Predict the 3D structure of the following.
Amino acid sequence: MPGTRKLGRASDQRRAMLRAMVTYLLENGKIETTVTRAKEVRSMAEKIITTAKTNDLHSKRQVLSYVTKEDVVKKLFDDIAPKYAERNGGYTRIVKTGPRRGDAAEMAVIELV
C-alpha cells in the first residue's frame, strides 16, 4: 500500500494526532504507542528534524506550522537539531515492547537516538 497509513481516522484527525505525537516526542525524547503509529510518527519526526538542521527563519516557520508548542520548537533548534548535525537521517529508534493488555495491539517505544 503506497502513501501514508490511515490509522482508522479521518485525514484532519490523523494530521492532528500525528502533530501532537511528534510534538510530544520532541518534548520528551520518547513515547509508547502502537507499532503502526510509531512508524508514521518516525516519518514525520525525521522530516521535522532534517528541516530544523537548516537554522534559518524559513525553516523555523515551516517547523512552527507543524509542531504545536513554541517552546518545543526552541528546544528543537537549540538542542536537538545541532546534536544531529553530522548525521544524515536515522534520528529515531523504534523498539517493540509486545502486545497491549486490552486488545493485544503490538506496542512499541519510539525514541530519539
In short: The CA atoms of residues 32 and 109 lie 4 Å apart.
